[in-house]
Fold:
Amino acid sequence: MKQENYNSSFPMPGVRLNLCGSILVLLLFVNSLLAANLNEPATNFAKLIAGVTGPGTIALTVANASSLPKSDEAQVRQTLESQLRSAGVRIGSAADAHSDVRVTLSENLQGYLWVAEIKQGNDTQVQMVSLPRATATQVSKAQPNVIIHSSLLWSQPTPILDAYVDGNRMVLLDVNSVSTLILSSGKWQLDQSSALAHSHNFPRDPRGLLVPARDHLADAYLPGTVCTISTQDHLNASCRDGDDPWPLGSKSALFNSGRNYFTGALFPAAAKNSGPFYALVELNRQAYTLSVFTGIDGRVRLNDGQRESSAPPLDWGSDIAALKTPCGSGTQILVTGGGDDTTTDSLRAFELPDREPIQVSVETEFPGPITALWTHSGSNSAMAVVHNLRTEGYEAYNITVTCGL
Amino acid sequence: MRRITLQLLAVSSLTLLLGAAQARTRPHYGDALRADTQTVVMSGDKSPEMLSGLVFENLVTIDNSGHLQPGLATSWSSANSGSRWEFALRQNLTFHDGTPLKPADVVRCLSKASAQSWRVRAASDGIVIESDTPLPNLPAIFSLPEFAIYFDGPEGALGTGPYRLDKRTGPLFSLRANDDYWAGRPFLDGVELLTSRSQRDQLNDFLLERAEVVELAPENWRRAQQERMRTASSKPIQLIYLAIDSATPALRDPRLSQAISLCIDRGAIQSVIFQHQGEIAASLLPNWLSGYAFLFDANQDISRARQLRGQLGPLPSLVISYDPNDPEGRLIAERVALNAHDAGINLQPQPNGAHADIRVRSANVASLSPSAALAGLIDQLGPKAPIPGANAQSLYDSERAALETYSAIPLVFVPRVTALRDRVRNWADSPSGAWQFESVWLARPRTEITR
Structure:
C-alpha cells in the first residue's frame, strides 16, 4: 500500500488546535487493483464459442453487464476476436453470418460470468465461463501535523489478537496459535507455529496480549488461559487454565474470562477500584502517574492515584494506547473511532495536558474495525489489528507517530 | 397503506430523537432483543428454518460472498468425481443439553432430512457419504436448512448453535445465549422471536419500542428511508411466483401455462405493487446470484400468448388464489387475471381458494451458493429433479429444464427489508437478509451512558 503524508506548518507544543478549520486533508487513492489476467479465460471462452459455431462467418456483439472496467472489457473483446480468428472464425455483419453470437460479460455473487448465446437458425446454444473477481481499491488519509503512520505487517484469515516486532522477528498471537515470522527481503514470512491448547471456548470478541519475557520468548495472556512461549528447539506454547492478571504498563489487571473486558481489579491494588474497563493507558506526570481508563459504560475515567474523575463526554472508541514520542508533550494517546464491527474504523492521536483531551491529529482510516490495539517496543509504537471488511481477513499494522512541522 | 405511512412518520420522529451517533465501543454483553417476523412456524416443525444458524447448525455454511465455510464440519474431501465424500467433524461439540455430538447424530439427521440417493455412515471422527452418481456440490447442499443437525430431546429438538431454544409459547420463541458455544458466546443474553406478526403489528411494536428489529414490506422501504428510519435491505432474495396445480386438467397442457407466463406484465407488478423494489423474474435464481438470469425472457408477449391460447380450444374458468393476509398477493392475483384476460384466458382471483388452480406464492432463496439455492428451489417448487451440478453451465441447464415443466411461473424477486432501532449494533447486512443475531449487541440508551 502506498501512502503519502502532507506536513502543515502548525506549531504543535502547547497550542490547542482548532482542527475543524485548519486541517488539510489529502486524499490519496491508491489503486491496488491487481489486473486480472483476462487473456486465458477469454481464450478458453473463444474456443468454446468456436466449438459451437465452427469455422465461417459469425456476427459478434459483446455487452458488459458487470463491474468489469471498460479497459478490461476492451481487452476481453480484443482477445476474443483474435482467438476466434485463429480458430478460423470470421467476424462479419449479421447479413453474412451463419451464427449470431451475443456475448454478455455478466457477474454473480462469487465472480464474473461470461455468457455466449449462439443462435444458428431457430436453435440457440449457451456457453459460459466463470472467473474470480479482482480485488478492490484502498483509500487512505494523511494528516498535516502530528502524523499517524500505519504499516501493514501481516494479514491472515484467522483473527489476530496481538503481535510485536523484535528486530527481524515478529511474534504473532491469534485465536488458535502463536507464530514467529522472519523478515526476509523486506517481506514477513511465516517461520514456525505452535497451537494453543486450551480447555474451554474463548468468548466472542476474544482478546489476547503478548508480553516479551527475559528467560523465554514471551507470555501470552488469553481469556482464562496463560501460555508460556519458548523457542529452545522449536516454537512451543505451553498453556494452562488461569486468571493471572494481564500486565498493562506498571500495573496488572484481572481480565473477565467470559467477556471482553477487565474486571477493574488492579495489582498493585489501586486506592479505588475503577470499575470494569476495556483499556488502560498510563501518562507519566512529574509527581504522579495518570491512569486513563475506557470504561464499559462508555465513559473515559482519569485516576491520579488519589482520586478519580470522569473526562467530559468524548467520542472515543473503547480501545486506546499511549505512545512515547518526541512530539508535543511527549506522549500521545491513540484512540479508535466510531461505528461498530460492521463499519470502517480510524485512529486519532490525543494529548492530555490537563483533564480535557486535545486532538492533535486527524483520523487515519482503516478498512475495517480495529479489533485490538496494544502498545509494544518501549511504548514508541503500537500494534493495531484490523478486520478488513472487504477481504474478511485480519491485518496487523505497526502504528507510529511522527511530528509535523 | 396510508395508516402505515403515518406510522412511519411517527417512527422517524422518534428515530431522529434517539438516533445520535455514538462512539465505537467494544461489544457489550447482556440484554435481550425482541424481533418480529411474519414467518409462520408450524407447531410440529422441530427445526424451523427461521432458527437455522441461531439454534440449529449445519456441517457447512456459506459466507456473504457465496463461498463455503466450515460449520460443524472442519474439512471435507471427495473422491471418484464426487461420488464419495468425507466430512471431518469439529471436536468436542455438544448439543444444548451438554450431550456430545457424535458422528451417528449427523448420520441420523442426514439420512432422514430428505429422500436422497446417497448412503451415509459414521467414521471415527466424521462421516462418509457415498452415491452411485457424482454429487459435486454436496458440501453446498449441506448448508441448506433442511440438513441442519439436531437431536430429538424429550422436550424438543436440541441444536448446537449460539442460542438455545428456552421455550416456545404459541408464536413466541424465547432463545437464550449458549454460554458454551464453540465460536464464542453471543453478546446478547437472549432473543425473543415473535412469529406470525402482521406488518401493521410489527410497525406498532417498533413504534412503541416493544421490538428492536422488525420486517418492512419492500414497497415501504423507500418511504422508510425518506423518513430516516434505520433499515437494512437484502439483495432481491424472495421469489414471488405462480404455483401451477398439475391436477387441473387444462393445466396439464404446458401451452396454457406458457401462455399465462407470456401474458404477464411483470414490469407493472415490480413498479406498481412493489414500488420499483426488487427485479422482475423469469428464472428461479436472481441474476445477482447466478449471473445468467437474463437468458430467461421476462418480456410480455400478448400476441404469442393469444396464439398459444388459440391452439387450446375451449377452456374453463380457472381460480387463482392468494393468501388473504397478504395484500400484495391479492394485487398480484388481480393483475395476472387482468393480463390473462387480454390473452383470452379467464382467471378468477380468490382468497385461499380450496380448489385453486393457480396460487400466488413466495419462496426464499435459501442459500448464497447458487447450486444449493437452485437445488432447494427445485425441491420446493417443482417436480423432483436431479441435484444440479456445481458449474454455471450445469446450473443453467438444470434451471431451464425445471422451468420448462411450467409447474412454477416466476414473477418478481423482492428484497427482505428490516427496520432496526438505533441501539442495535453489529448488524451485518447480508445479501440474503438473514437475521444473524450471534454477533449483535445492544448499546445502552444515551441517557444511561451520560447519567
